[in-house]
Amino acid sequence: MAISYRYERNTMNNLERIRHLMDKKGFESIFFMTNENRVTKNIYYLSGFSGTDGFLIITMDKVILLVDGRYPEQAREEATEGVDVELTSRPLVTGLGDTIKKLGVSNVGLEENVLSHSFYKKLTSELEDIKPMTSDGITEGLRLAKTNEEIEKIRMACQCSDSAFTATLEHIKQGVVERDISTELEYQMKRRGASKASFDIIVASGYRGAMAHGIASEKKLEAGDFVVIDFGATINHYNSDCTRTLMIGEPTDKHKKIYDAVREAQEVAMGHYKPGKKYKDPDIIARDIITKAGYGGNFNHSLGHGIGLDVHESPTISQLANDDLLLVENMVASNEPGIYLEGWGGVRIEDTVTVKGHGGEPLTRLSKDLMVIE
Hints:
The protein is of the alpha+beta class.
């Protein structure tokens, strides 16, 4: 049943874009690192290499991808045209300063929020007369607005997770263990072509629904439970993120009131995922609706986060965001208001959303009607 989701990648456009920024900001070279302890997606974004250990050095006329003996075949297969793959011994930091010095540059951009303090000290001590410059956030800034190709990949991830959730519904009933639902949902996503779940799937029923990040447990679903299910699939390195809340047995008036308030907040906020709106605007709108319903103190997280190569990336859709941060066309972010009552339960409704001129376009397409499981 696996579905093929393959697209040709044109990362040279990404290299051209970062070189434009390098020129604008005065960088003669820029350095990226990823490893098992601090996996970052910037190397993949700029070179096509998806391994979890390597260095990437970009100058205005050269791109070098340094990998150790575990990755040369993968690197040569994945790297975009124009990226030179070089094999180096472990630890990779050995001789790295010499490699950069041979490029004849006077400065190098370093992602200080990625590098460990000890690595930064060792590398900069080897650079001698090459000036280290902070390059934090430069690539993430390029990743904010998605290309049409990226949006299509995210859409495919959403279609995969939507279909998997629909297939999992027949397994959800009173007496079933949360963890079994999580396992089945992940299986159904992988069966449909996902390389993995985007994150640890959340299945939180009854009182556990008040835990915004309630990873699936051994609790059994009971009559009167809301069941919050938060899940996503990874396809071609891009992610989806979706939450639906189900009802086990007949809902009470309280269940209906809370669910309807969250749904209204989500749907009204969707219209504010527009270019030119402040990052904070959709959050403020959703929060106001939930507050008017009497549950303002029970919406205890931001409305949304960016989704792409990372399932949590910029932008952050939050009432706390700076006024000068504005949404732009083709940003992709979650829209996920919630209400959480400690000791009772919770509701969250979430879609993966593209910022468009007419308002948010949901890429996750599951119904938002309250699903009641008898």
